[in-house]
Amino acid sequence: MVPGAVAEQLRHLAKFPQPAPLDVFAVSTYFTVSVLFWYTGLIPDLATLRDRATSKIKKFLYGIFAVGWRGSNRNWRHYEMAISC
User: Fold this and answer.
1) CB atoms < 10 A from the CB of 47, how many?
2) What is the pTM assigned to this prediction?
3) Residue 49, exposed/middle/buried by CB under 10 A (0-12, 13-18, 19+)?
């Protein structure tokens, strides 16, 4: 390529005033997946908080967020499969 042609292409690329829509999609997807992995890691801890809660409302709320976790072998097997992918 001719050096002038490369400079012209770079000037053309620099004229975008807004981020590309794919950048917004990529960042929002990354954020969503990160939150899901973070929440998945919290499920056993939320179940522990549910079991140790003293008030009924805390037990109820932690129970919702613990999504039925009981700490059984089946729960742990599914949990390990979910976080290992």
Assistant:
1) 20
2) 0.67
3) middle
